[in-house]
Amino acid sequence: MTAPVLQHQHRPEGDDGTSAWLVCDGCRRMIYSRRFARGGSVCPECGWHARLTAAQRIDLLLDADSVELLDTPVTAADPLHFIDTRPYTDRLRGARAATGMSEGVLVARGTIEGCPVVAAVMDFRFLGGSLGAAVGEAITLACEIALRERTPLLLVTASGGARMQEGALSLMQMAKTAQAIGQLDEAGILTVSLVTDPTFGGVAASFATLTDVIIAEPGARLGFAGARVIEQTIRQTLPPGFQTAEFLLEHGVVDLISPRAALRPTLGRLLSVATRRQAPAPATAAAAASPDGEAGGHGSAGVVRDPARLAERHPWEAVRLARRLGRPSALDYVGALVEDWTELHGDRAAADCPAMIAGLGRFDGMSVVVIGTQKGHTAAELAARAYGMPSPAGYRKAARVMRLAAKLGLPVITLIDTAGAHPGIEAEENAQAVAIAENLRLMAGLPVPVVAVVTGEGGSGGALALAVADRVLMCANAIYSVISPEGCAAILWKDPAAGPDAAAALRVDSRALLEAGIVDGVIPEPDGGADVDPLAAADALRAALAGTLADLVPLDPPTLVSGRRARFRRFGAPVPASASATTPSAATPAVPTLPAARPPMGQRSTADLDDVRQP
Ligand SMILES: [Zn+2]
Predict the structure, then answer these.
(1) What is the helix (H) or strand (E) element at residue 274, kind and residue range?
(2) Ligand 1 mean position to 35 CA, how many Å?
(3) Over the stretch 264-281, which tens digit does the pLDDT of each residue have?
(4) Distance 25 CA to ligand 1 centre (A)
(5) Can you give the pLDDT at residue 276?
(6) pLDDT tens digits for 552-585?
(7) How far is the CA of 219 from the centre of ligand 1 (A)?
(8) Measured in Å, how far apart are the chain's first and last C-alpha atoms?
(9) Fewer Cβ close by (within 10 Å): the C or N end of the chain?
(10) CA gyration radius for the chain?
């Protein structure tokens, strides 16, 4: 695989101080070279990011005085005695002379904003950053050092692909580096890549894209095949921006794009959240451990557990309140409750769903993962967020971030407000049903605490795909239902206007669902609803989450998983004759039964559900 042709023949490195001006290859404007250098080799006019050497990159990213360059043995020989127009040994000698490097990557230990990291940084000047045996060896050694020292790994990539002159030995570096990243996954150590322009071929198809978080510089291109090869093969002109960071973000490949000037804070925030797991504050833990958690009322955990304490009202009233556009969204709650937030994007396969948000941050002093459906408050926002109805890519993004939480041992909080999974041709083409089903199974086995909160609408399987949790809570004015009342009315009543009747029959309101044990607790809302006083609503959510997490965090993974499985196993199971004699454990709250007149939801005839499927 050859290095793609350089689009920007920018040569600031040739500047020795005598030339005060240079021409930006992005906008062709004259730039004062000192200003350009001060900006990290970013054009102040158009934002074009020039390439950096590995040494410049380490200077830019790592804390001054923290850098310790690590020896990586040079194993690049000439195994094939390769000669094209020049012997490979000549090319190697030339690259060494031109760069002052023995090979195309530098490995360093250091800190970023105080957080320890092992970094491997590629240099495109060295034979196009090609992945020879020595480069593969250096990357692998960096992984092994990170593994041994249990330190996060940062890979900065810049490569045209494999190094042809080393033949199949070069190809094997892809497998070698991929398995090294896999070992870091098994050990629960954060891996991050910073994709710089260009990253192609064997590097793109191995370590560059196997990391937990992929950050790209603006405009950086990444792909398996180079644009020229693709154009020659398919004989079509490629769209503008093809394979750039912006294209990759839209297609679910990278998590975020960070301008060079923001890289250090971006990386520092991420490293600090992913490496410093703190237990909840003692006061919070003590409050949640107090035995009156089940006593009802606005207990110490801020959660109502006794349905009698909730106002009785017609469920349709809840439907109307739950759908109010002013209710806080998932991102509103994140803004109010989560510090050092990093939003992650993309399913690493095809797309980034705007109706699903996911990321890492600190809640109540503790590192957590937050995942939620996202609607919006205005018509424009709603349209941009697909009305809060996630696509399969949304559920797959959620799954990817949940697996990251499992890897890092971080609790998962989900915030649910969706009418349901997106219904559409594309969603079906991309296996919406499979995406939801896989989340149900994944969540049931997550080895970390999981708390789900229905904050608005909890619509059907699209909501449940985020709600297989140790504790399922809902806001007082939220609803949670197998189908929208209107949808149910249209099918069973043959009259969509019978929505209120359907809402009552389906018992979609928080009081009914608490009685049925579908939810474990109800979070009080300010008078008039969460939309009237979003800050008070956020405070109530904070109290509920803090208390619930303090309960769950001390539990070990097997206890969490068995408790979660038992929680969902009992829905619809026959009620033992001596049900009242069984003592529920703290990890597995009992499911209270409904009044005799109405059997618990799971024990009703499945004919209801069959009817739902009829056209
Ligand atoms: Zn420019």
Answers:
(1) helix 263-275
(2) 12
(3) 999 999 999 998 555 554
(4) 6
(5) 56
(6) 999 999 999 999 999 999 999 987 766 544 444 4
(7) 12
(8) 54
(9) C
(10) 28
At residue 2, the pLDDT reads: 38
| 111/164 Cα distance (integer angstroms) | 35
What's the CA-to-centroid distance between 40 and ligand 1, angstroms? Answer: 13
Q: Phi, psi at residue 614, to the nearest 5°?
A: -75, 145
Q: Residue 14, exposed/middle/buried by CB under 10 A (0-12, 13-18, 19+)?
A: exposed
Residue 592 CA, ligand 1 centroid: distance in Å? 66
For residue 265, cis peptide bond before it (omega within 30 degrees of 0): no
Distance CA 346, CA 261 (A): 23
Cβ 279 vs Cβ 449: under 8 Å: no
Compute the distance from residue 30 Cα to the ligand 1 centre, in Å.
8
What single letter denotes the amino acid at residue 459? G
Please tell me the distance from the alpha carbon of residue 161 to that of residue 205, in angstroms, as a whole number.
9
Q: Mapped to the 3 state alphabet, what secondary structure does 39-55 carry?
A: CCCECCCCCCECCCCHH
Q: How many CB atoms lie within 10 A of CB 497?
A: 10
* Alpha-carbon span 181 to 205, nearest angstrom: 13
Torsion angles phi and psi, residue 532, rounded to 5: -75, -35
Ligand 1 centroid, distance to 31 Cα (angstroms): 8
pLDDT at residue 294 is higher than 60: no
CA of 23 to the centre of ligand 1 (A): 8
**pLDDT higher for 590 or 59?**
59
> Which residue, chain included where needed, has tokens 């679910």?
252
- Report the relative pairing of strands 356-363 and 105-112 from DSSP bridges: unpaired
* Residues 260, 39: Cα–Cα separation, whole Å: 9
Residues 160/129, Cβ–Cβ less than 8 Å:
yes
Q: What are phi and psi of 100, to 5 degrees?
A: 75, 10
Give the three-state DSSP class for 292.
helix
- Check residue 18 and report its DSSP letter: S
pLDDT in tens, 32-70: 999 998 899 999 999 999 999 999 999 999 999 999 999
Asked if 282 contacts 365 with a C-beta cutoff of 8 angstroms, the reply is no
Give, in degrees to the nearest 5, the angle at Cα 453 between 185 and 499. 130
Residue with tokens 């002093």: 365
Nearest to residue 371, comparing CAs of 463, 270, 301?
463
> In this structure, are residues 152 and 180 in contact, taking their beta carbons and an 8 Å threshold?
no
Q: Is the pLDDT of residue 482 over 90?
A: yes
Per-residue tokens: 416: 């649910």
Of 21, 26, 61, 20, nearest in space to 40 by CA:
61
